Amino acid sequence: MTSTVLFKSEGRNYYLHSGFNNRFLLCHPLIHHFADLTRIGGDPAQWIDQIDGAGIYLGDLGPFSRAQVEYYFGKFLFLKENHYFEDVDIKKKLSDRLSAQSVKTTLANCRQLTFEVTDLCNLDCSYCAYGKFYNDYDRREGKNLPIPVAECILDYLLELWNSPLNHSHQKTIYISFYGGEPLLNFSFIERITYYVKTLKLMHNSVRFSMTTNGLLLNKHMDFLVEHDFQLLVSLDGDEVHNSYRIMKNGRPSFPFIMSNLLELREKYPIYFNKNVRFNAVLHNRNSLSAIFRYFKGKFNKSPNVSEVNPYGIDPAQKAAFRETYRNMNESLNQEEEYYKDENRNSFLMPRPRDVIEVIRRYSGVVFRKYDELLACAHERSFVPTGTCIPFSRMLFVTVNGKILPCERIGHQFSLGRVSLDGVELDFHQIAKTYNRYFESLSSQCHLCHNTEACIQCLFNLPINDPHPKCFGFKNHKDIAQYFSSVMTYMEEHPEVFFNVLEEMSFG
Amino acid sequence: MCWRRCLLAKAYWFYLEPFVFSIVKGKNQVALYNTHSGDFLEYSDAPDIIRLVKRLAARENLYVVPLSESMLAKPEINAFIKKVRERFMGDLLDQRHFPHRPVQMMPFLNIEKDAEKFKKDAPERVGEDLMTYVSEISLYLTNRCLINCTECHGAYRQFLHCTRIPDKRVVHLPLDAVENIFKESTGTSLCRFNLLGGDILEYPHLEELIPRLQDIKPLKSVYFHYKSISNNHEQLRAVRLPKDSSEINVLVHFPIDQRRLRLCQEYLNPLGLETTFFFPVKNELEFETAMEADIGARGSNKRLLPFYDGTNLEFFEKNVFLTREIILEAKPSLQDIFSRQAINGNNFGKLIVFPDGGIYSNVNFPALGNINRISLYDAVYKEMLQGKGWRLSRRRVKPCSRCVFEALCPPLSNYELAIGRNNLCDIWRG
């Protein structure tokens, strides 16, 4: 697989990306020509010999004189000597695998513990991840997570957080409450908040966060403010945008949620400004620009925007799902006003998101940590796919005590369990399972051109099929198009390069 | 290359390659460095070129600027561009063929977990993953020593070397403090423990410590003065270091007692460990003598360390100081440059613990704390916040911050601190 990608922007500028050097170069079309010629086994020197006094054309470019051709051939050789056309040993690069120790260490450094506090909800949203569209979650039985079970996992994690395996200091760990609607089990939240505050953490501090539909904020806001909760409120925009989010009796939830939000803002304006964020789901009744305009106008905030989850769909619901689903890129492309929209460079918008990923992973100037500056880039290895190392993002406990690496994947992928009898986490088995999944995908990964920036989670693939297909796979043509669209954007918005580097903090 | 054809065109894009590092210092100095070939172009008295390079390096231009025909016709600019093209450091694109302004992802370092950024925007993140940076811990187990070296108070400040500091009283690093350090370093990327004294053979807990060394994975690099080995060879015999993960370092000072050096070699051979003899040298004579010194057995290495004794600046100027030729001969890569901008490669990841418990990122700076009262975590966190040792780069010190070679020079070392100047070179005389 050739690691060098040749492409043109829509402005017809020629570029290459060297996988070996992990760098983009603007280049002359003759460089492209020599690279192509060499790739198909041709001899550039012979080709040069055939040039007559009139020079040569490359497509509609030229004529280029022999002297020019010789100059660029010299440059091509210089670039070749400096590995711009050398292939990466992709198998070696993707040879990392998990071990029991690495899984345990990751857990000791987990940044978030999320409890599915209850599977009860006071709304009946059509696109709910636990609703009619999906079939990859445990049945909703109106259960609450028992408090002793939560205390058990907290005690278990406390030991790890205080162990030498925790390699951070003064880092914030988030204790998060999720549902259903978590405020329906407020007593759990209250008890666990107080319990957490009794724990003696040697190297970390704790903050609390919650994802809520906002319907019960009026009852519990004093407590949430007192304990400095970070709130993520699910709201899709104005009353029409929000019309999928209905109460159990079929009535729209919007007036009640809005009333609670305004009350919270009135009573605790500083808290509202600092601690409250919104998550809007994109669907067929709203649009990206409408969502951003609404939140900017109403609350002077930029929301997270997510798509309706396209994974784990019940086959019987596919048609209904397709009706509801909207893809962010589609929404962007349909909006002619996009480039005039003041949010066009918001890093939450899809096109800048692609640019961010390309700058982060393919520019060669972004390093995750200081010690990467001292390491040889070619010797680094990774696991295949963009799957998070288990527990690197969070540990999620379902209402049934299942332990999952995040709240977005199907419950059938649980990695362990917590009950009144204790915590069952077999690190060796977890590593073995992940490594088996990696092996089943590695043959595709070895041919994929997007390994540096892969964000494909293996749990969103049919991973238990004998030959699972990766939806994120990018062949040479795909990656060339991807780079082309990013470079085209950058040519039109050159300021985005430094905006990304200076204003974003990642990791 | 057909200049005449180029000049007939109306306008061009002139661009630099992303592997070219551009340097702008003050109003009147610019330079371009090719990180592949080592080519270096420097200008300080050429206003048009300086203006052009500054435009290229400006963020809004991303290494690409339009150039008119009239600009190209200027002899100075023409000659400059010719040099840039000859060295493959940049190129001209005819705007007739390429009407849309292209871009380059110019070399500008970004560290995602940058402590400086976090300090400003997200202080709660400064401590993230900090223990993964710890790669080497030097433990001065005791300051007790019966040998009276003249270098005792100076050498340890320049390189790893035994010392009797703090020398008002005899102190030993408590064994439980050592145990705690071993324990707390489990989560780090530690690859080496250096063990030193005083005279390490005078450490009262040595017998209990040695078996513990078997259980820890990092390399154990143990330092002895050559005279202490010949004085205490019986105790040395009892020191059973793990063979597969230990090495011995022997410090040999001038004037060399040849008999004791020979004895030292005899006593070390049976240990069967990789051994390096370090010769701190202060002048040419010592240099020659050390080069010729016989260190005997196979498996032994020799290293000469320049040592500044306060009077031998001339020796340093002749043998240690850098010239522009030496700097450019080293051909630092773009990653080297980035590394030097952000961290100090001599200090980064290293901690030193003295027998009184003082813990340092560099012994020439104040202690981060006392290991008997704070944890390794606290010490490293403090270092991440302060950035004095680990992130000491030339961009923070004078005169280097004003010099075009700032990012090309090797990182600041303890020699600069010992001699009391940052420019150990013949480049900056101002």
Describe the protein in words.
The complex is a heterodimer of chains A (507) and B (430). Chain A is built from 17 helices and 16 strands. Chain A is α/β, with parallel strands linked by helices and 507 residues long. The longest helix of chain A has 19 residues. About 2% of the residues of chain A have low confidence. With 430 residues, chain B is an alpha/beta fold. Chain B is built from 16 helices and 16 strands. The longest helix of chain B is centred in the first third of the chain and has 12 residues. The two termini of chain B are 41 Å apart. The chains are: A alpha/beta (507), B alpha/beta (430). Chains A and B meet through strand 3, helix 3, strand 12, helix 16 and helix 17 of A and strand 7, helix 5, helix 14 and helix 15 of B. Strand 12 of chain A pairs parallel with strand 7 of chain B.
In short:
The complex is a heterodimer of chains A (507) and B (430). Chain A has 507 residues and is of the alpha/beta class.
Write the layout of secondary structure elements.
The complex is a heterodimer of chains A (507) and B (430).
Chain A: E1 4-8, E2 14-18, E3 23-27, H1 29-39, H2 44-49, E4 56-58, E5 61-64, H3 66-81, H4 90-93, H5 100-108, E6 112-116, H6 147-161, E7 171-178, H7 186-198, E8 204-212, H8 217-226, E9 230-234, H9 254-267, H10 269-275, E10 276-282, H11 288-299, E11 304-307, H12 318-324, H13 328-334, H14 350-362, E12 366-367, E13 395-397, E14 402-404, E15 416-419, E16 422-425, H15 427-445, H16 476-492, H17 495-503
Parallel strand pairs in A: 6-7, 6-13, 7-8, 8-9, 9-10, 10-11
Antiparallel strand pairs in A: 1-2, 2-3, 4-5, 13-14, 14-15, 15-16
Helix pairs in contact in A: 1-3, 5-6, 5-15, 6-7, 9-10, 14-16, 14-17
Chain B: H1 3-8, E1 11-16, E2 20-25, E3 29-34, E4 40-43, H2 47-57, E5 64-68, H3 69-73, H4 75-86, E6 90-94, E7 110-111, H5 115-121, E8 136-140, H6 175-184, E9 192-196, H7 206-215, E10 219-225, H8 226-231, H9 233-238, E11 246-251, H10 258-268, E12 274-281, H11 284-292, E13 300-306, H12 313-319, H13 324-329, H14 334-342, E14 350-353, E15 358-360, E16 369-370, H15 376-386, H16 414-419
Parallel strand pairs in B: 8-9, 8-14, 9-10, 10-11, 11-12, 12-13
Antiparallel strand pairs in B: 1-5, 1-6, 2-3, 3-4, 14-15, 15-16
